[in-house]
Automatic annotation (TrEMBL), chain B:
Species annotation: Thalassococcus lentus
Entry keyword annotation includes Magnesium: no
PROSITE patterns: ABC_TRANSPORTER_1 (PS00211), ABC_TRANSPORTER_2 (PS50893)
ABC transporter domain boundaries: 4-233
Pfam family, one: ABC_tran
Protein name (database record): ABC transporter ATP-binding protein
Top-level taxonomy: Bacteria, Pseudomonadati, Pseudomonadota, Alphaproteobacteria, Rhodobacterales
UniProt cross-references to CDD domains, sorted A to Z: ABC_subfamily_A (cd03263)
An example molecular function term from Gene Ontology annotations: ATP binding
Length: 253, 311
């Protein structure tokens, strides 16, 4: 195992992040504040409480998930797509590296960035509403697994994409709708029965539900199912990456 | 054991284009091999297959005795590559990108070494400059620094002097000579024949994905080379003198020089006969000199001979 290389890639990627630290930091703070103004104040004044939690506090876990998922995907997909695009990937391919080390470096860095942004959002949210974390360990576990698994997904997208449009396509057409419809801003129980059933096919529901459970003890689906879903999703991504590694798909043409 | 051993390597790209059509080549440890070939000959593809950037469709390649696919770690850890295209992270500082290259090879940080490489390449003053702010020549220097940062035993230079300034070219040859003195094996591709002629120990000629020949540069030039014998005359001639059938003769300098072009590999060069004939004809000779033809002539001859074969 070439750990030196993993660290080199990780540091190089994090340096990119720190170069644009203000931007990385300010934009989640602003967008979170906007969500609180729009959803918290406007809608919250009508909804008041969801299952005993103020609406503002209720949406915090969903907001964090929304940003963490988007950030993990976009950081990881861009992280590996950019070297492909400018050709520096050849340096990785000609170095004594296994694909595993490349994945660890890029996915590790992307997951770290997403985690950082998740924490920033949590802190921002705490300024607006009373955030309670009943199950800190579960909260951290869900957050870490989400960062990791969606960074893996982002990595796959970055390898797959052959232009910038494709890079944007999956997050835009698949992930964002799934997250928005995944109960980030409402409880599934607020939907008509038919839509409740439909929603259960959305994997993000399990994530947000589990994550929210770690805050308030409220869950749309059993917590075990949530863990199973995120665990299964991580394994699926790992399997796809293992296959890419075996075949050299889209990398060593 | 050759440092690099290439056996029956074929490469057909996804689109169906065959870029390498059965390449066999041994590269000796410590030599400088120039791979000479026109654009599209397959030079970059061959290097990419050796370095792990692309997978050969079939055939085997070893570096330092290690198969580049099965034992890629061992093989790649001794290989450095200066790519043909300038591929650099635009926003990163020079020194960081060079450190990164060393890190990728799993080597511990070595600031002294990096500094000496950057100084040698006149990059030390630019170490904190973001790459996008560098000129093209400077970027190429960065690529060389990256390749040297991990102390390769085999160095590939893919068209290193295409479009670079004289200064960089000179620095590059200095570095190549230093590396050679350290026993590093160097493979450079070029379509400039002077480059191969000036620096290589051996020359390989590649065209349309096939190696046409590999030979010691000197023996290649001797074997294939034509030499010209210039005979300076006291009295100008108005035409090529008669009586020299089968001699490739022409006059130059308004008849004050007679030039005889001959094949050095021929059993009899005919020089003695020419000189005797001139004396017999009463033509007074002031001076003689010989000029060796360049690799370029050899190369053009080879490629066109091959095309005629195919036609
Ligand atoms: N990725 C690729 N896909 C398809 N064809 C390629 C690819 N790379 C190179 N080629 C083709 O293979 C041939 C050899 O290219 P290359 O190895 O770059 O030649 P050279 O370096 O000698 O100029 C060219 O005809 C080129 O168009
Ligand atoms: Mg080339």
């Amino acid at each position: 195992m070439n750990w030196g290389a993993v660290i080199a890639i990780y540091k190089f990627e994090m340096a990119r992040f720190f170069r644009t630290l203000t931007q990385s930091f300010v934009s989640p703070v602003i967008s979170t504040s906007l969500y609180f103004v729009v959803f918290g104040a406007a809608i919250g004044s009508r909804i008041d409480q969801v299952e005993g939690v103020s609406y503002g506090a209720f949406i915090v876990p969903g907001l964090i998930m929304l940003s963490v998922i988007t950030q993990a995907i976009s950081n990881a997909s861009f992280g590996i797509y950019f070297p492909k695009f400018i050709g520096t990937i050849n340096e990785l391919l000609s170095a004594p590296l296994s694909f595993l080390e490349i994945v660890l470096g890029y996915v590790g860095a992307a997951a770290t960035k997403a985690l950082f942004i998740g924490v920033v959002i949590l802190a921002t949210a705490a300024l607006f509403v009373d955030v309670v974390i009943q199950n800190p360990l579960a909260m951290i576990a869900f957050l870490l697994l989400t960062c990791l698994s969606f960074a893996l997904l982002g990595f796959i997208i970055g390898i797959w994409a052959s232009n910038f449009e494709q890079l944007q396509l999956v997050p835009l057409l698949v992930v964002t709708p799934l997250v928005f419809l995944g109960g980030a801003f409402y409880s599934i129980s607020m939907l008509p029965p038919f839509w409740q059933t439909v929603t259960l096919f959305n994997p993000v529901v399990y994530l947000i539900s589990g994550f929210r459970w770690s805050f308030y003890g409220l869950a749309d689906v059993p917590i075990g199912l949530s863990l199973l879903a995120i665990g299964g999703f991580t394994l699926l991504c790992l399997a796809v990456i293992w296959w890419i590694f075996k075949t050299g798909w889209r990398i060593r043409n | 054991m050759p440092m690099v051993e290439i056996r029956d390597v074929f490469k057909t790209y996804d689109g169906g284009f065959q870029a390498l059509g059965g390449v066999n080549l041994d590269i000796k440890e410590g030599e400088i091999l120039a791979l000479l070939g026109p654009n599209g000959a397959g030079k970059t593809t061959l290097i990419s297959a050796i370095c792990g950037i692309t997978l050969p469709t079939s055939g085997t390649i070893t570096v330092g005795g290690h198969d580049v696919v099965e034992r890629y770690r061992q093989a790649r850890s001794i290989v450095g590559l200066v790519p043909q295209e300038i591929t650099l992270e635009p926003f990163e500082k020079v020194i960081n990108t060079v450190r990164f290259s060393r890190g990728l090879f799993g080597l511990p940080r070595d600031d002294a070494r990096i500094e000496s490489i950057l100084r040698k390449l006149s990059l030390w003053d630019k170490r904190d400059t973001p790459i996008r702010a560098l000129s093209g020549g400077m970027k190429r220097r960065v690529l060389i620094a990256k390749a040297l940062s991990h102390e390769p035993r085999v160095l590939f230079l893919d068209e290193p002097t295409a479009g670079v300034d004289v200064e960089l070219r000179r620095d590059m040859w200095d570095i190549v000579n230093e590396l050679k003195a350290d026993g590093v094996t160097i493979i450079l591709t070029t379509h400039y024949i002077e480059e191969a002629e000036a620096i290589a120990d051996r020359v390989g000629v590649i065209d349309k994905g096939q190696i046409l020949l590999v030979e010691e540069k000197d023996s290649l030039m001797n074997r294939m080379g034509h030499k010209e014998l210039r005979v300076e005359l006291d009295e100008p001639l108005t035409e090529v003198p008669g009586g020299f059938d089968g001699f490739d003769l022409r006059i130059e300098r308004d008849g004050k020089a007679l030039v005889y072009s001959y094949d050095t590999s021929a059993e009899r060069t005919g020089i003695a006969r020419l000189m005797a004939g001139l004396t017999d004809a009463g033509i007074a000779v002031r001076d003689v000199s010989t000029v060796q033809n360049s690799l370029e002539d050899i190369f053009v001859g080879l490629v066109s001979a091959k095309q005629e074969d195919e036609a």
